[in-house]
Structure to design on (602 residues):
C-alpha cells in the first residue's frame, strides 16, 4: 500500500483569550528589527554560469490552465468550457497540455473521456494528468487514460521541511517512500495501456522551499524506479509552489540541481513558477538560463493566490528578443476573449501585451516620441522594429494603432496631432500643434477625464472649422491680371483682384482689392474695409481624401497688431476657397480670443 498524504483534523479552536484578542487588534507590520520573517538562505554556487547565458530557443511549453488554473477559479470551468479552452491551447501551438486531475472529481474524469470519445486530441499533442502518490488515485487515473495515444502521468508529493513537519509529521525517508511507491505503481500499471505511450513527470512539490540535497535525493530515487533513458527521459518538474526568494536564488537552485543530478541526460528539467513575490516571469526566465528546458504555466498567469507564471508574457518576451516562441499570439484579443469567457476572469488593463492600456501613452513627451517613431519606422514587415516606448509592434499580435495614444490633461501636442492625423487625416503644422495642444489640455483639465478621438476632433472643429462669427464668407471670386508686355501666354498672372461678399454679424458687405495672389488680395480687401492691420505668417494645405471631389484643408496663421498669433483652418473641395475661409476663421479666433470651446460626452 502507498502511504497517504492526509492529515488529521484537530478539535475546533477554542475562542481567543483576552490577551490573544488584544494582540490581534494591535497586529501590524513590525518596524525596525523584523523578527517575524527571515531572508531565504543563499545558494553556495560561486562559479554559477547562468548570468552569462542567453535564451536562444523556446522551451517546451506545457499549459496547466485546465488543471492548476481551473482549480483556482471561483466557478471552475464546465466540461464544455474546458473543451473550448483545450481547442484554444491546441490552436496556439501547445504540444503538452495538462488537462486535469481525473481522479479528483467526476467532471475531471468526464472531460478526459470527452477528449477521447470526440477525438479532440491531435496527433502531435500529448495530454498530461496530475495525480498524488496515492494508490486509489493512481488506479483511477489509469482508467481515465484508456484510448489516449500519448500521455504524461504527473506524480507529485510535498517535500519541504515545513510541510513534512506541520502537515504530514513525516521524516525524509517516509516522504521518499511515498514518491517511490507511487512511481512503482505507475510503472506496474503502464503495461495495462499497451496502446498508450506513457511518459512520467515527478514534482517534489514546494521545491523552492525544500533543501536542495533532499530534492536531489528524492528525484534520483524516483528515477531509479522508472529507469528513464536519454531517448525517453523523465520530466523532473521543480516547482516554485510558493515563491520564497529573489529570482537569482531560484536560478541558483535550478543550476545547482542540474549540476548535481546523476544521469542528467535522462531527465527534462521543468519549471513551474508561482508569482507570490510578483517575480514569476523573471524567476522562470532565469531558471531557463540556469539549465531548465521546459515551462509549465497558464495564459495571463491565472492560478492559486497570485497565480502561475504567465506564458503569454514569457512567450512574447522571447519574441521581442528575436526568438521564435513557437506559440502563436497573432490575435491576442481573441485569446483574451476566450480566456475571459471561460474563466470569468478579467485581464488587467496594464497586463503586458494584452491589457487595454499597454499600447497607449498619456504623457505628452511619450506621445511625441511615439508619433515620430511611427513616422520614421520602415514599413517593411521584416524591418527592425524601432519605435520609442513600444517594445513590440502591436500589429504582430493583432492589436491596432488606433489606441496607441490616449489624451488627457497630461498629454502633449504630439499625441493630439497623432490622433487627428491617424483618425481623421488632419496634419496640423507644428506651430499649430502647440496652439491646439494647449486648447486640448485646458479642455481635459475642465473635463477631468480622458478625451476620446471623437471629442478631440469635435474640439478641433469648434476651435477652427466652426469659427463663423463675426465674419462669414458667403461668396468669393478672383480676376487674374496678366502683364500686357509679356509674350508668354502661359505666364503666371502679375496681379489678382478678389471680389468677396462677407457677412459681418449677418449683415452683407461687398469687398474688393488687388494682390499678388488670391490670399493676399483677400487680406488687402479685409484690411481696407473691415479689420485693423494683420499679417499672414504661414500657410499650409493638403488633401483629406482621394478623387476629384475630395476635400482639402487649409491652415493659415495670422499675427495681429498686438503681436498675438492665431491659426485658422477650413475645408472645401476648392483649395483656394478653403484658404480664404481659413483666413476668416483666424480673424474670428483673434476677435474671440480666450473664449473656450466645449466637448460633449461620448
Amino acid at each position: 500500500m502507498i502511504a497517504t498524504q492526509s492529515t488529521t483534523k484537530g478539535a475546533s479552536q477554542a475562542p481567543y483569550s483576552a490577551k490573544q484578542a488584544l494582540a490581534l487588534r494591535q497586529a501590524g507590520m513590525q518596524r525596525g528589527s523584523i523578527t517575524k520573517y527571515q531572508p531565504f538562505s543563499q545558494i553556495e554556487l560561486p562559479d554559477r554560469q547562468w548570468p552569462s547565458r542567453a535564451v536562444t530557443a523556446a522551451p517546451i511549453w506545457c499549459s496547466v490552465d485546465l488543471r492548476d488554473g481551473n482549480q483556482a477559479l471561483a466557478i471552475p470551468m464546465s466540461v464544455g468550457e474546458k473543451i473550448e479552452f483545450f481547442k484554444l491551447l491546441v490552436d496556439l501551438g501547445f504540444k503538452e497540455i495538462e488537462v486535469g486531475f481525473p481522479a479528483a472529481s467526476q467532471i475531471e474524469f468526464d472531460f478526459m473521456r470527452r477528449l477521447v470519445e470526440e477525438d479532440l486530441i491531435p496527433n502531435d499533442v500529448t495530454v498530461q494528468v496530475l495525480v498524488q502518490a496515492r494508490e486509489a488515485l493512481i488506479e483511477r487515473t489509469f482508467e481515465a487514460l484508456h484510448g489516449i495515444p500519448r500521455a504524461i502521468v504527473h506524480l507529485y508529493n510535498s517535500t519541504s521541511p515545513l510541510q513534512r513537519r506541520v502537515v504530514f509529521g513525516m521524516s525524509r525517508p517516509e516522504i521518499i517512500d511515498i514518491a517511490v511507491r507511487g512511481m512503482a505503481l505507475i510503472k506496474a500499471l503502464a503495461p495495462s495501456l499497451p496502446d498508450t505511450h506513457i511518459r512520467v513527470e515527478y514534482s517534489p512539490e514546494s521545491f523552492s522551499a525544500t533543501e536542495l540535497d533532499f530534492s536531489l535525493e528524492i528525484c534520483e530515487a524516483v528515477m531509479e524506479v522508472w529507469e528513464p533513458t536519454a531517448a525517453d527521459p523523465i520530466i523532473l518538474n521543480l516547482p516554485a509552489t510558493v515563491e520564497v526568494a529573489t529570482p537569482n536564488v531560484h536560478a541558483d537552485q535550478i543550476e545547482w540541481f542540474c549540476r548535481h543530478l546523476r544521469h542528467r541526460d535522462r531527465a527534462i528539467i521543468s519549471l513551474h513558477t508561482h508569482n507570490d513575490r510578483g517575480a514569476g516571469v523573471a524567476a522562470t526566465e532565469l531558471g531557463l538560463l540556469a539549465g531548465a528546458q521546459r515551462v509549465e504555466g497558464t495564459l495571463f498567469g491565472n492560478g492559486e493566490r497570485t497565480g502561475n507564471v504567465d506564458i503569454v508574457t514569457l512567450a512574447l518576451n522571447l519574441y521581442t528578443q528575436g526568438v521564435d516562441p513557437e506559440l502563436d499570439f497573432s490575435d491576442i484579443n481573441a485569446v483574451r476573449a476566450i480566456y475571459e469567457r471561460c474563466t470569468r476572469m478579467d485581464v488587467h488593463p496594464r497586463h503586458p501585451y494584452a491589457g487595454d492600456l499597454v499600447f497607449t501613452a498619456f504623457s505628452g513627451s511619450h506621445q511625441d516620441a511615439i508619433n515620430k517613431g511611427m513616422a520614421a519606422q520602415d514599413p517593411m514587415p521584416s524591418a527592425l522594429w524601432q519605435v520609442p516606448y513600444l517594445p513590440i509592434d502591436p500589429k504582430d499580435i493583432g492589436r491596432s494603432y488606433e489606441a496607441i495614444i490616449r489624451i488627457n490633461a497630461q498629454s502633449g501636442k504630439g499625441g493630439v496631432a497623432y490622433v487627428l492625423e491617424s483618425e481623421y487625416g488632419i496634419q496640423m503644422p507644428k506651430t499649430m500643434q502647440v496652439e491646439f495642444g494647449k486648447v486640448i489640455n485646458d479642455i481635459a483639465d475642465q473635463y477631468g477625464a480622458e478625451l476620446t478621438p471623437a471629442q478631440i476632433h469635435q474640439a478641433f472643429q469648434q476651435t477652427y472649422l466652426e469659427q463663423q462669427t463675426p465674419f462669414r464668407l458667403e461668396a468669393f471670386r478672383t480676376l487674374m491680371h496678366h502683364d500686357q508686355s509679356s509674350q508668354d501666354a502661359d505666364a503666371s498672372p502679375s496681379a489678382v483682384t478678389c471680389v468677396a461678399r462677407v457677412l459681418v454679424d449677418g449683415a452683407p458687405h461687398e469687398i474688393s482689392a488687388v494682390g499678388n495672389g488670391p490670399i493676399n488680395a483677400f487680406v488687402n480687401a479685409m484690411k481696407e474695409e473691415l479689420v485693423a492691420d494683420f499679417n499672414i505668417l504661414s500657410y499650409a494645405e493638403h488633401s483629406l481624401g482621394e478623387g476629384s471631389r475630395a476635400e482639402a484643408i487649409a491652415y493659415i496663421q495670422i499675427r495681429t497688431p498686438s503681436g498675438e498669433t492665431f491659426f485658422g483652418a477650413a475645408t472645401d473641395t476648392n483649395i483656394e476657397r478653403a484658404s480664404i475661409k481659413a483666413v476668416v476663421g483666424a480673424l474670428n479666433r483673434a476677435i474671440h480670443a480666450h473664449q473656450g470651446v466645449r466637448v460633449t460626452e461620448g
Summary: The longest strand covers residues 471-481.
